[in-house]
Write a structure and sequence with these properties.
mainly alpha; two-stranded antiparallel ribbon
């Protein structure tokens, strides 16, 4: 009966063979597993959010004029985009 159980399975993410019964794929998630993958997703999402937030803040300040732009609103936009990017990155990586 044990001979019918495959020793390796194919990871749906990277399509490499992993041992049957593994909790995570060592090729996709690394040695630190799912928690490390979620942290990396948050980091990448935060970097993406920083770029988007900087772009949105630059466009917004150029539209209304640099003399009317305040640091509070500009920084708030960037921080909101970074936070949103981190959350999206972690949620996306968790769903993989």
């Amino acid at each position: 009966m044990d001979k019918d159980v495959p020793q390796v399975v194919v990871c749906p993410g990277c399509e490499r063979e992993v041992p049957n019964g593994s909790i995570y794929c060592p090729h996709c998630c690394g040695e630190d597993g799912r928690e490390g993958a979620i942290k990396r997703g948050g980091y990448i999402g935060g970097i993406f959010g920083l770029m988007v937030g900087g772009l949105v803040a630059a466009v917004w300040s150029s539209i209304i004029g640099p003399d009317r732009t305040t640091w509070g609103v500009t920084l708030g936009v960037v921080v909101a985009c970074v936070t949103t990017g981190m959350i999206w990155g972690m949620v996306w990586q968790r769903g993989k």
